[in-house]
Amino acid sequence: MDAKDQKKHRKKNSGPKAEKKKKRHLQDLQLGDEEDARKRNPKAFAVQSAVRMARSFHSEFFFFFFKHTNRTQDLKTKKHHIPVVDRTPLEPPPIVVVVMGPPKVGKSTLIQCLIRNFTRQKLTEIRGPVTIVSGKKRRLTIIECDCDINMMIDLAKVADLVLMLIDASFGFEMETFEFLNICQVHGFPKIMGVLTHLDSFKHNKQLKKTKKRLKHRFWTEVYPGAKLFYLSGMVHGEYQNQEIHNLGRFITVMKFRPLTWQTSHPYILADRMEDLTNPEDIRTNTKCDRKVSLYGYLRGAHLKNKSQVHIPGVGDFAVSDVSFLPDPCALPEQQKKRCLNEKEKLVYAPLSGVGGVLYDKDAVYVDLGGSHGFQESEEVRPTHELVQSLISTHATIDAKMASSRVTLFSDSKPLGSEDIDNQGQWMPKEEKQVDLKTGRVRRKAIFGDEEEEDESGDSDDEDDEEMSEGDRLENNSSDDETEEGQDARVTDKQYTSGKGIKRQKLEMEEDFEVDLPAFADSDDDLERSSVEEEAEEADESSEEEDSTAEEERDILESKAIREGGKPELLHTDDSSDSLNVEKSLTRKKATFTTSDSGHCTAEEAFASEDEPEENSSLSTEEEDSENEEAIRKKFPKPSQVVSCQKLGSENLIDETSDIEDLLKEEDYKEENNYSTDTSGALKWKEDLSRKAAEAFLRQQQTTPNLRKLIYGTVTEDNEEEDGDNGEELGGLFRVSQPASECKHKADSLDCSRFHVEAPHDWDLEEVMNSIRDCFVTGKWEEDKDAAKILAEDEELYGDFEDLETGAMHKGKPGPDTQIEDVEEEVKEEIDPSAEESAKEKLLDKKRKLKEMFDAEYDEGESTYFDDLKGEMQKQAQLNRAEFEDQDDEARVQYEGFRPGMYVRIEIENVPCEFVVNFDPHYPIILGGLGNSEGNVGYVQMRLKKHRWYKKILKSRDPIIFSVGWRRFQTIPLYYIEDHNGRQRLLKYTPQHMHCGATFWGPITPQGTGFLAIQSVSGNMPDFRIAATGVVLDLDKSIKIVKKLKLTGFPYKIFKNTSFIKGMFNSALEVAKFEGAVIRTVSGIRGQIKKALRAPEGAFRATFEDKLLMSDIVFMRTWYPVSVPAFYNPVTSLLKPVGEKDTWSGMRTTGQLRLAHGIKLKANKDSLYKPIVRQKKHFNSLHIPKALQKALPFKSKPKTQAKAGKTPKDRVRPAVIREPQERKILALLDALSTVHSEKMKKAKEQRHLHNKEHFKMKQKEEEEKLKRQKDLRKKLYRIQGQKERRNQKSSLKGPEEQLK
Amino acid sequence: MATQAHCLSYSGCNFLRQRLVLSTLSGRPVKIRKIRARDDNPGLRGTTLYYQPGLLYGGSMEHDCSVLRSIGYYLESLLCLAPFMKHPLRIVLRGVTNDQVDPSVDVLKATALPLLKQFGIDGESFELKVVRRGMPPGGGGEVFFSCPVRKVLKPIQLIDPGKIKRIRGTAYSVRVSPQMANRIVDSARSILNKFIPDIYIYTDHMKGINSGKSPGFGLSLVAETTNGTFLSAELASNPQGQGAAMLPEDLGRNCARLLLEEIYRGGCVDSTNQSLALLLMTLGQQDVSKVLLGPLSPYTIEFLRHLKSFFQIMFKIETKPCGEELKGGDKVLMTCVGVGFSNLSKTLK
After folding, report:
1. What are the boundaries of the region Disordered (chain A) (predicted)?
2. Which CATH superfamily is domain B164-265 in?
């Protein structure tokens, strides 16, 4: 009222206020501001130093020109990773924390401390993974890793975070480095070092030094700046609380980079294992293959049912069944609190016997804590008592129904069926079980009324209602009320999901058994489920009173079943199957009472989508029976198995309304038509019935029908499996299927064209109109109509102000022009409703303007990298949003089991050793395999011997590879690629170079890292990792060659032609090598020409020079080698407990030789012999006479030198002395000897004398020097004293000086 | 011992190509029994086939196709396999280029190639060229197809087909009067002009050796939308000596009507290429792909079943009833999460 009376505000167009406003506006736009120094004095801001400019300016435009920018740019781009689509689910699986370290370093203590830190619980013995809730959005799975290299390899593949414990008092151990190298190969998880045993250092300086040294070594291995945590000292056998708290905090806030292998493969770190094998089978054959179920959080990628998995240490298996279970260690519900309360701090470690409640597909195991101790006095029953009794029973179901009794409470009076009728309360039965291994007492909840399993669907929800109530009742008795209540609720969920699975199975069987369009009865399911939903809604509105009313109807129905229905439920053939059925019977079908259909089956989900269907199907049972009848009319042959529900529903026909009948008739026809027209569509040439085609199209009109049509019908792959057991009647007769139509379809023409069965008459106007809008000339949608867009643009761009001139340009005054004024004053005057819309429009406009602005300015800025990132983000968003609104059952079918789910995986044909030798300390990993990753083929890789490995590797020596999920032994061949692309075999790996390796083994995608070790057993003294590398190629046709030298010998030599023999064996071989290059050892090159007839294999060859008979001729050729097809998975998990690290596969030739003491037979030529040098005998030089003549005198052989003989006349006669003379000569001789001796002695004496004299002289000299020195010393002292005195006197004054 | 991926078993000769293609891509062996088991002349050397797939090698090849089926029959499978070879495929196919049964080379060129481009299979070497035209029963046509290899495929979101902005086509005639093509064009235009003026139909008259061994004529039409969707229709004359002679005017009109039918069916992918699109969606990364299709052809439905058994993949199928605007028949929105397929044949350098 007031607003209307007020005067409209007028903007000031002149005056100081208006001026000010205008100025401010311009300033905001950073335009027209004359005060701006940059504008006023542009020269002052000009570029003066290019380098400084470059330093400050990081535009990529400049980085070509300036070095510095280049560097920063380089650094910047180095940080970029190729963007990947973020596929982490909304509720991620727990983070795998691997605690690794050498023995006695404090791993278990650390884990215990961490668990205590997060959960306030103390675990005494830790076996296998422990899952804990560490924060509002994070859970951790902590697992300990010993020094067994098998375990190290397996855990490195699944780790998200590695806590690497290092004994600081000892330093790094080899295992630490080995583990680091393993991690590096299989994608690098986050690694955090933890130093322990720091209290053993006495001196602080020593401690500091050690810390620094270890830190730097750690950094070189991981990355500079990697986090290293110090745990100083223990208090009461535990680490200090504050330090553990800090460590826990670090772990909780840590961010992780996605690893390629992990994100592209589903995997499970199993935290629980159950043996599902039929006990009878084990009894008859203790070594029979087992059927096990493994439980764990799914990680990595989506897991599809029936896919292949590899269990490292065991082998490859096909998943026989997957189901998801409620999360045993769930994150807390969303709340605004900062920290968790005590109840939300869950811990789950079934292998260690912690976790409270264990859920199975069809049972719940409750582990009773100390507070439940009073119940332990109850008697203990055998494990499978109920199941056993069910198997052995011979009574029919209705008989059993009548006599069945249910115990509500352990000490209450058992209730019969009549009691139930009265009360309408069904409860789970509790059974005490003692776990044989741990001795724990478990409470198994079993539901008494199995007979109602196949009951009509609409009883389920009520049952459930009561069930949950019952549970709650029961829980009231227990101490921990709320927690248990939650558990019970989860249990219900569980049952629902279980039921869904069973339901599908039943459907399948029906499909085979009843020979009619298979989706007919599945459609019924749909409708039934839709009614279920309706019932649910009803439940919601009304309370228990309503449900009891419905309950009565239920019971009526169930009675009807008892009357009409034959107990033909157990139509399975083998005992294990029947056991299954029994099990499933123990379950009570239940639907969650809350309105969200989060846990209904897939069919239900689809039913909810199908609205028209839902509307029409008010009472489904009737419809069901109608269909059933109609079918029977059409096919007089009795269907072999009639499910109880159908018979039961038959009794309620009277309730049907006529309209519904009609509807059903139509439905049925439609479905029946399908079988004719899918085939009809293919034999289009013969049969062009318009009706069929229309029916076909109509078929596709509703979603569930289409889905049923495609997936719900008999699929061929099931046919082969179920074909045998499905149709057996009474175990004697087989029903042959009249599948002529199917056969016809199977053999018809293979053509992808989709022929028009019923062409429209395109001359008619309305037919033409039906597609007119498919063309650009037709009508456009609201938001795309050109005229509309133009109008909007007008609105947007219509009025603008020219900022340079400051003038305003007004657009056409539209209906909402007055709002366009941005100023607030205007808004106040508009009435509230108009204001709302105006605001909206304004916001809209602003948004559009911003978009335009962004588009204009960001385009220049955004790089290819940014675009790519944006694209990935968009895809990630879509991935998350697409199936978000669907319940898990349906989601699982489309996208597979998503990471983060707690799943139960059934695997058959597992070797019995896996179960018998089960050791919870060893991790069980189920690694999902991609397409054709389960196949075996030739794999090429780039390999490098590890620089720390002491030996080199030999071709054809068996070696253990760790590639992908697997560890296996194989025989590789090493090769190197020559320049011409030839792959030449190497006998040994090169020392510091990469080489190629090829082996026969599992196909693994290219780019996968691998490592090789020579043995996984025992402790090797040195570094164990022998080689690392990457998979390059998967080529079956790789050709590795080795050098082959063929030798031959000439046997006839002409000028340049020789005949060579001994190189080949036949003329044919020669013919193959015609023209080949040959060579002699001395280097004469030649060519093979043609084979000769005479010795077989000889040939004619020409050379560049004449050969000698002693020459050896050889030819270099290449001989292809084949890769040995040997692939032997390391089955370390199958070894007995305590011997799991003793697996040894095929031995190398060297090891075998050593073991058997076989010496290598050496080539005799290679043996060393003493070198005996023969005396070389040279012939004398003979110069021909003619040459001698021509030689100069100098070089002429001198003849006189040779003249040894003196002529007789020249020979002097020998002197023969007289005895006298001889005596004289002897005397003289003696005298001269004496003299010379004398002289010698004298000389010696003199020499001695001289020596002594010299010594004396030296002594004297020394003494003299000493004397002089002393003298000089004395002299100097006196001199010094004198000088000092002088100085003193000089200080005293001149008078004294004068004195 | 590694367990080989267990073998799938089928019976009957139908959908042979699907089974072989999927078997090759998934690496699972396949066994097909009872191939025309009741026929007197089954056409094979036996009635059972076991196929153990290996890796795709690619490279340059030549192949003489049987004249009983057109080259399109072979090309359809090749289009599925070509992006996943070790070496880029360059193949020359000889045989019948256009017939009445299979999608012709022209249609595949106009529709399948743009579809593959949506998945990131693109490049200079990506082409399909009709070198010679050959009509049944003689054949004598020649087609050159080359395709680059990819390690991974991009996911697609084809939800809005857009509106048809132009219609193109090829009217061909071999070993008949070149006037035939013109007559076809005129008659086809007479119908299509009522909807859109932007129509251009090429007349392709091949002579001499390029005209193959048998006379014939035909028309293929392609409608292109603003969002890059291609819808096609085609008709060919009866093979020489089989059936009554066809008037080119009738052929043109009928073909135009077929195109209108195809437009009525609509969707972002042509009805012949539905299975190709679904396959490539399946083979994508683990991301959501969406595509809007017209009514599913029986071939596609069977293909979906095969996809489920080979790749354990199920599509989310939502029907989109035609809205208030007049835009043809009901559509089906197919959504799936890729299996995270990667080309195992490609060499890492």
Report:
1. 1-38, 411-658, 1239-1299
2. RNA 3'-terminal phosphate cyclase, insert domain (3.30.360.20)
From the list A1074, A1071, A1076, the residue with the least C-alpha distance to A1086 is: A1076
Q: What type of residue sits at position A625? A: S
Q: What is the DSSP string of A675-735?
A: HHHHHHHHTTTT---HHHHHHHHHHTTSHHHHHIIIIIS--HHHHHHHHHHHSEETTTEEP
pLDDT of residue A1199: 67
CA distance to A700, A1093, B14, B325, per residue, from A697 (Å): 5, 81, 22, 20
**Cross-chain Cβ contact B54/A1036 below 8 Å:** yes
Mean pLDDT for chain A overall = 73
Residue-range domain boundaries for chain B? 1-54, 164-265
Whose tokens are 């429209």? That residue is A760
Confidence of residue A429 (pLDDT cuts 50, 70, 90): very low
| The two three-digit tokens of residue A819, written as one number | 């709002």
Task: Determine the residue of chain B that is closest to A753 in CA distance.
Answer: B272
Measure in Å the smallest separation between the Cα of B27 and chain A Cα atoms. 5
Residue A49 backbone class (left: φ over 0; alpha: ψ -120 to 50; beta: rest): beta
Query: Which of A304, A754, A772, A983 has the highest number of chain B CBs within 10 A, making it the mutation to test binding with B?
Result: A754
ipTM, interface predicted TM-score of the complex: 0.91
Torsions phi, psi for A839 (to 5 deg): -60, -45
Which residue bears the tokens 């008739």? A665
> Residue A336 carries which DSSP code?
S
Residues of B in contact with A709 (CB under 8 A): 301
Buried b (16+ CB within 10 A) or exposed e, B110-122: bbbbbbbebbbbe
Give chain A positions within 8 Å (CB) of B38: 743, 747
Amino acid at B126: F
Give the model confidence (pLDDT) of A468-504 as tens digits.
444 444 444 444 444 444 444 444 444 434 343 444 4
∠ at Cα A360 (A356, A363), nearest 5°?
90
Nearest-angstrom CA–CA distance, B336 and A1082: 71
Q: What angle do CA A696, B298, B342 make, to 5 degrees?
A: 140
d(CA A261, CA A249): 28
Between A51-55, A390-394, A1184-1188, the lowest mean confidence (pLDDT) is in: A390-394
Does the distance separating the beta carbons of A706 and B332 come in below 8 Å? yes
> Do A889 and A601 touch, CB atoms closer than 8 A?
yes
- Angle A284-A288-A291 from CA coordinates, rounded to 5°: 115
pLDDT of A669 > 60? The answer is no
Q: So what's the pLDDT on residue A773?
A: 82
Contacts of residue A681 in chain B, CB cutoff 8 Å? 297-298
Give the residue from A750, A940, A966 with the most B CB atoms within 10 Å of its CB, the best one to mutate: A750
Q: A219-233, A249-263, A507-521, A1284-1298: lowest mean pLDDT where?
A: A507-521
Measure A932 CA to nearest chain B CA, in Å: 5
B324: β partners: none
Which of A703, A746, A933 is the closest to B317 by Cβ? A703
pTM for this model (two decimals): 0.67
Average the pLDDT over A383-409 and give the result: 48
Contacts of A857 (CB under 8 A, 6+ apart): none
CA atoms of A762 and B196, how far apart (whole Å) = 15
Distance from the Cα of A731 to chain B's closest Cα (Å) equals 26
- In chain B (349 residues long), the average pLDDT of successive 10-residue segments reads 66 91 92 84 80 90 93 95 94 94 94 94 92 92 95 91 92 93 94 92 91 93 93 92 89 93 90 94 92 91 92 89 68 90 85
* Nearby residues of A602 by Cβ (< 8 Å), 6 or more positions away: A500, A504, A889, A890, A893
